[in-house]
């Protein structure tokens, strides 16, 4: 079996060896086990379902959280020569969707959002075609988004509640024990095998720096972008600020574009492609950007705020240094940023008053869509309340929402404490996920001591060496294939 897998690895992907954890995950899948796999960003999670797809006889269904991520994965497979791949999403017209549904079984890799999976026609079609593997990509979203943002993640178990279903693979870069439990529960996994690699990325160096004002924060960000090499991602909290930062940095000569959920999908994909193709060096984004983006040479990730959780912070900084070269993750904050982060995290979250408005509207005969169009509640409010009130009483729903709101606030306190106290940032993040580190790298974090100049030089040197190694591997693989 191992020899065959290595042959597929070389012939389909051009690699002569597996990265840590990949082979064990693939063997578990081929043994028809349900698998929860935690691999750090850049360690080749996609290969863990793509390679089995070429060994297994039928389709692989991948549940993916973002349209941009789906498109990126589809493009990656097409570049490898795979034509039997499709993203079934809202980009398609009604006619295109119907045509694809009719021939869905002819595709090897089928990408769907959880919302698309839960549509009745799609569910019926999926139940009628042979499927060899179901994949939940970025599976932490089940726990982090399902309860309060995209409840269709929690409904996936309804579709997967079948004794004859194929194995399930849940992939993510970060997961606490609670998140792993949520993944197993909401995907109806049966005694899943856990494959967990170390979360620590020694080549990422952490810095958390307090500034006195928002204007000083921008000036420090602009200075860092100028002084330290890119490409990079600048994360901010609002669409308005993303656009404002981008315009101000463009005026300083930075090749940058903004990216956020207020943009049209086609515009967002265009910005992503510009970034991947090196037509711009920076993206200023809300947290909508970066998940699954295959750009190996991101040298820095900058935050201008406290992220909504330790898990989100780990996911976002993990987009740096996928090539193994030294990279820098910097967060600038003011004393007021904690309150702003709490406001952003809870602003569009329903409370007791929203529950009562929703309940009264439904009792009066309004459809959930009408509640939105009449501006009684936001689309997010309606999506969340439609789920919870279908499962629980009004009183139980109010209690659940209060608990979830408090959890959001506590998660911000957790990341704030990690970044502001005197302890090593790296050590605290790794321990948060129940792991330990045996040693810390030189230039570990701003608490342990950080020499930016050394990181710049090391980053340039490593990037050059990695490019040479990549060409050597390509040539070696080519010669092996010719032989």
Please give a structural write-up.
- The structure is a single chain.
- With 483 residues, the protein is an alpha/beta fold.
- The protein folds into two domains: 2-196, Rossmann fold (3-Layer(aba) Sandwich); 200-231 and 295-483, no CATH class.
- 50% of the residues lie in helices and 13% in strands.
- It is built from 21 helices and 13 strands.
- The protein has helices at 2-13, 22-30, 47-55, 67-79, 94-102, 114-117, 120-128, 140-144, 152-160, 177-186, 214-227, 239-250, 265-276, 310-317, 337-346, 352-363, 368-373, 379-391, 394-420, 425-432, 452-482; strands spanning 35-38, 59-63, 85-88, 109-112, 131-136, 168-172, 193-196, 204-210, 232-235, 256-259, 282-285, 300-303, 327-333.
- The strands form two sheets. Strands 3-4-2-5-6-1-7 form a seven-stranded parallel sheet, sandwiched between helices. Strands 8-13-12-9-11-10 form a six-stranded parallel sheet, sandwiched between helices.
- The longest helix has 31 residues, at 452-482.
- The protein is globular.
